[in-house]
Structure formats: structure tokens, C-alpha cells
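Notes continue from the previous slide.

Worked example: a multi-chain complex. Inputs as given:
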Amino acid sequence: MHPIVKYVAQRILLGLVLLFAASIMIFAGTQILPGDVAQSILGQSATEQALANLRAELGLNEPLVTRYLDWLTAALHGDLGTALTNGQDIATSMGQRLGNTLFLAGWAALIAVPLAILLGLIAVRYAGKWPDKLISAVTLTTVSIPEFLLGYIVMFYFAVQWRLFPSVSTVYEGMPFLDKLNAIALPVMVLVMVVLGHMMRMTRAAILNVMQSAYIETAELKGLRPFTIIRKHAMPNAIAPIVNVVMLNLAYLVVGVVVVEVVFVYPGMGQYLVDHVAKRDVPVVQACGLVFAAVYIGLNMLADVIAILANPRLRHPK
Amino acid sequence: MRIPPSAAIGLIITITYFLAAILADWLAPYDYFEIVGEVWEPSSSQFLLGTDSIGRDLLSRMIYGGRITIFVATAATILAFVTGALLGFTAAVAGGWVDQVLSRMVDLIMSIPALIFALVVLSVMPVTMPVLILVMGLIESTRVFRLSRAVAADIVVMDYVEAARLRGEGSVYVIFREILPNSLSPLVAEAGLRFIFMVLFISTLSFLGLGVQPPLADWGGIVKENKEGIVYGIPAALYPAVAIATLAISVNLVADWILNRTSSLKGGRG
């Protein structure tokens, strides 16, 4: 077997093992901990009888392993259970929201990734000069600012002072595409700012690292223009680290989305998770946690697989 | 020792925030819970930052809120460091299966985003300050574990550790007398970064309504209390958010400087 197939298969297998273990962690996190689910749903004043009924209804009297296996098999069949608070099927309510979240995160990625790579290239071209320093300073600032501050600053100016975009991102099914884009303009802007800094800094570091190689010096001595050197000689060799950076930041986007959705009251997964943590709706929290973990682990796995595929030493073994 | 201007500014702002937190009782012009004016009054000589969503003095809320934010973040950072560093050093010194088990556990916890994991756990735990500190501290201890294990792994192979072992010293001696003093500088720089992360973490949780519970409010909580004002053009929610950001940037500048200083002393790897 070609070694590259072996490496990729290994990495995918590891991802699946990790996801399986993460599902145990999420389940255990809500079940083994000293908090009593029934108690926290009904509150301190609940009667013994009510507690016992709820425990029976939730299947809390079954052994832990049985409950976990039941939950996992059901989840693998697409059945995530029903929400405690309103009795609705979780998978159905989640489908629409997951679509919304992916729509938001997708647009943010579509804008942030090319922009970050372009800025990274400019920073390398003018390394140590003022454009580089300016880009570095701005990105250092955006990295240190909490997402909700960025959100409210953007909302304060773009929605309230200048009235360019709506302050609340309402989207619904069958909404015209352009209206949808208009509605998510501000949250996308915030998400782009959140990941841009990190992605650009790491892109810059990856290319600078390559730029110190001997073949770049050769290209310089041949008299090639700086941008040609970067495009034709540095970029191909920097692709693997850059792709890695992009993937890690997309994974980070998954978390950033939670806060941004709450700021802009966007009907996505993050809002759904936060609402139900506050209501102590454990089945919904478990399901959301599982989906978030799956996306996060999946993106990290993809980053590793692409890094393997992009490595010429593995592609052309001796 | 010369302090670069960026680090000096960072240091001054950080110290100011810490002093304000410690001296809150003397500095705050009004009481924490006292309703002293109309809702969302603009800033005036009476209320320097105006009033909040129910008419409390915003500056006083900010000073007391900063105390909570800084206290929770500091406590969680200390917890993360004590657990993370101790386990990381143990893994490096013991090696073998102890190292394998601890490292794989940490890999697993880090495979779930910190905020998501915290939310999952907080959905079943009572949201009190000790629980918050515990959850945040333990989740973050995995990041400290990674670093301290890596640093300790470099030290364990040194001759002086070998010498101590040949003298018949036990693992506890090696960890506290050989590894700890030699790994202090990278750990101190890391502590700065972890502290920032904790500040952002607790602020985010409180902002989502799952951190410090009312009537107490940290900076994230004050943002939440006043966020409705934004739509009417009232910037009350922006002040605490700016406080969080400036504290984070200042500590970052100081940590950067410590990191640069220690790595240049030791030639590359700190």
C-alpha cells in the first residue's frame, strides 16, 4: 500500500477514536458530576415523588453504561432525543439552526481566508517596514479583544450611528438570498476580525520561514521581482503550514460563533446551546456538544490530512 | 534592566487595574448596589461614566466588577498552574505509562473546545463562583500541562538531574528543587497569557449569562446588563468591554516582554 494512504487512514481512524472518546466525555460530564439532573431541572423545592418520576422518565435509574450506549446508538441513527423543556425533537430543531450557523461561518471563512493570506503576503513583502508593523499592531489588538466587544462596537457604529445594516440578524426560511446576506453582514464582519489576526500572523510566520531558505536566495540573485519570488517559490512550499493555520482557525470559528450569535440574536447552533444550558436542558446540551465537538475534531483531522497530502516527501517515497 | 516602552505601558495599566480591584472600597464613589440616578444617564461630573440600566453608578459597578473579574481569573489561573504544572512535571519525570495516560487524557480534553466543554459541564453544575473557578481552572490546566511537560522533558535529561538522582533523591525532590526553579521563566510568561485567557473566558461566560450570577456582576455581566442600551446609542455596555480588552492587551505586552527576555538569555528556547 502506498504509505500516504496508510498515514491518511491512520489519521482518520485517530479522529474517529477521538470523537468516540469525546462523546464519552460529554456524556460523563453531564452524568457523573455531583450535580443531580432531576434536581437542577425541578429546583430545590421539588418533592421526592416528582424527583423520582422525572428520574424514571429520563431513565436515570438505568446503569450509566446502558444509558450511554442507548444515547450513542440513537445519536448514530440521527435520533438525538427530545428536549426536556418543550418536548420537541432535537434533531429537527437543530437541522435548521445548524444550516444557519454553517451559512454564517461559511461566509466568514470565504472572506477571511483570502484576505488573511493576502495581508500575510503583504506583511512578508514589507517585512519590518511600516505596512508590516501596522498590520501586526492591528491584528494584535483584534486578537486581544473579546468577541462581544467587537460585536457591540460594530453594532454601535454600523447599525445605530450610521444605520447601514440591521442590528439584529433575523433570518427565516424562504428569505431572499440578498436579504439574508444583508442580515448577516455584521456578524460576518465580527467573525472575520476575530480569526483574521491569528490567521494572518501565522501565514506571515509560515512564509517568512520559507523565505529564509537557500532556493529563495537563488531566486533573488536571479533578479526575480519580490512578488514573483513569493508567488512562485515561497507559496508552494508554504501551502501546507498555511492550510493548517486556516483549518485551525475555522475550528476556532466554531467557538467564536457561539458568542457572536448571542450578540446578534442569530438563530443558530450557538444561541440554541446557550439557551438550553441556562434552562438546564441536558439532552439538548449533550446533542449540541456532540455536534460542536464533531465539527471541531473533523476540521482538525482535515488539517492533518491536508498537511500529509501536501508533504512531497510522503507523496514521492523513495 | 531596561523596560521597553510597550511593556512599561502594559505594566502600568495592569498595576492600575489590580490596585483598583484591591482598593475598590475606597475608590468607588458610590455603593455597588445603590440606585443613585435615572436609567442610563450620560456621563457627568456626578457620574463619571453615567449610570447603568437601572440607575446605578457605572464607574462604581466597573470598579467592583473588575474586582470580581480579576479575582476569578487569578484564582482560576493559579489552580490551572498548580494542577497543570504538577501533572506535567510528574509526567515528564515518571515517563512510561504515567506519561502516556496523562498525555492522552489531556489530548482528549483539548479535542473539545474549552467554551463548549465548560457550557456542557455548567449545564448540570450549580453556577457558583467556586464551581466556575474549578471548571475554568481544570479545563485550562490541560494547556499548562502541555507546556510544563515539554519544558520539563528538556530539563530531565540534564546532567544535574542525573546527579541528583545518583545522590538518591526522589521524584518529589527532582520536581521541586531541580525542575521547578529551572522552568520558572517560561511558566511565568505563560501565566500571563493564561490569565488573559481566563479574563476573556469568565467575561464570555458571564456575558452569556452562565458565569457570575446577579446581583453580582463582573465586567462581562455588566456588558450583558447594559447591552440593550446599544440599540439606543448608549455606550454603557462598551466601557466594561473596553476594560476587558485593555487589561488583556496590557498583560499581553508584559508577557511578550518576559518571554523575549528569557528566551534571549537562554538562546532561543526558553
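Summary box: Chain B touches chain A at residues 107-109, 111-117, 119-126, 196, 200, 203-204, 207-210, 220, 223, 227, 230-233, 235, 237-238, 241-242, 244-245, 248-249, 252 (CB under 8 Å). DSSP finds eleven helices and no strands in chain B.
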